Each structure stands twice: as C-alpha cells, then as structure tokens.
C-alpha cells in the first residue's frame, strides 16, 4: 500500500497540506504513515497534520521523541476511559506510571482527552494534555485501575472506544461491526494484562 498508493500520492501533491486520520488500528496506521512520510521528507513539517481517535501505543519513548520532532501538529483524541489507547500496556497495568524506558510502550504527544463519563463527547469537557510528552498523568493516564476494571467487566470500555463525537463508529462501513467487537476488545485487554504481568515477573 505504501509504494503504489501513499508514496505516489505524496509525490504527486508536493507542497499541499496533508492530513492523516484514523480510528483505533487505523489511527496507529495513520500515525506510522505520517511519521514515515516526514522521515522520508515527502511532506514538509508545516504541511502535515495528524488526527487520531482511540489510537493504541505505536512505539516506545524513543519513537515518541522522534515523532514529536518530525510530526509537530499531531492530535491524539481519547474518549474518557477508552481501553485501546492504553494498549499495549506501558507498565503491565492500567495506570499513570508510564515511564520513558526504552523498549516499553509509550504514546507520542499530543493527547486531547474528553473526560465526560458518558458516551457523548461534550465540547466543554476536554483537556489539552502535555504537548511534549505522550503520557500525561493528568489526562487519560490518570484514570484509576478500578475504572478500567469496570470497563473490562462490562461493555463500557468498548462503548467508549466505539463512540467518538456522538457517532457510533461500528455503524460505519458497508456492514458495520457487530457485538463481537465489544467482547473482543475486553478479551484483548485481559490477554494483554495477563501477558505483560507474566513478562514482568
């Protein structure tokens, strides 16, 4: 996809403003694509914008630092206690203790955190988080382990992941996604938690 689509497009539209966007895994792909485009010099820093929604971590603290330097206008939107932005786990647990250790998952900046606890995203209830660090304990990283446990045990975490800006994202596409997505997200979160705790011990 890179060579015959993205790279060709970027070469054909040099000097244009480019925006990459995506939700969930699509957000991770958009971030990595934006990073590669900048790294290869295909887009000028002032011509690139990135918007992601519910994006998982894509690298460690070294990747996050390089990302911050290469992709200056980057906005990573998180809907309250959406589980996916906390995967892979940065320290073996859902918490605010994500440190800048090489090899450990770490987000790139800049998080925009919508902190209302229902499925709406009220435009008066958001916080622009640390512009230099991707793991701000005063934003979604500050949500308690108990809150995430409630999400894993119910559909709430998956619902937060599938609702952005009052749109239910699993209704998009030719057929949409079914309820298996909710079960899958909770199951994946539990597996990551289990595996990471095994690795650490």
TrEMBL record:
Domain of life: Eukaryota
Swiss-Prot/TrEMBL keywords: Membrane, Transmembrane, Transmembrane helix
Transmembrane domains' residue ranges: 180-199
GO biological process, one term: lipid metabolic process
Residue ranges of every copy of the Fungal lipase-type domain listed in the record: 4-91
Coiled coil recorded as keyword: no
Pfam families the record matches: Lipase_3
Name assigned to this protein: Fungal lipase-like domain-containing protein
Annotated organism of origin: Panagrolaimus davidi
Classification of source organism: Eukaryota, Metazoa, Ecdysozoa, Nematoda, Chromadorea
